[in-house]
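hiii, so i know i said id send this last week but things got crazy w the move. better late than never?? heres the sequnce for the chain we talked about at the cafe, plus the structure i predicted for it. fair warning i was half asleep when i ran it
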Amino acid sequence: MLRLTKKLLFGLEAVLDIAYNAKARPVQAAAITRRQGIPKRYLEQVLQALVRDGMLIGQRGPKGGYRLAKDPSAISVADVVRIVRTIEAAPDPLVGAPASALGHKIVRPIWQELQARQIAALEALTLAELVGRAKTVGVELES
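okay and structure toks below
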């Protein structure tokens, strides 16, 4: 089952912040840190992974920052989850750990099925939908 870690939570918040505050200029990491309260050490690591995997485009320089590489409607929450999970240090407890016959044949398959359902639900949810939710509940845009 997907575990909501700090990196995953911060990664989702950072990408949503970039999608929500997208304008003509890229969104600066310092602005994300200020708005979301994400510690710089987590944010930098997550943003670098998202750039490396092609979800974000990084622009260097004093007016640099980050922008989405694709339209928010083309990016699912599951896309973000998959990228951020690659930088997390915790091993997947379902892979390679010893288990009994009941564990291998009953318990692990149930967990894998639940995880597949979670991923399917996250695949169906796009950044554009989350941006719409943020607007609906009145989250203020940066001016």
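btw The mean pLDDT is 90. thought thatd interest u
miss u guys!!
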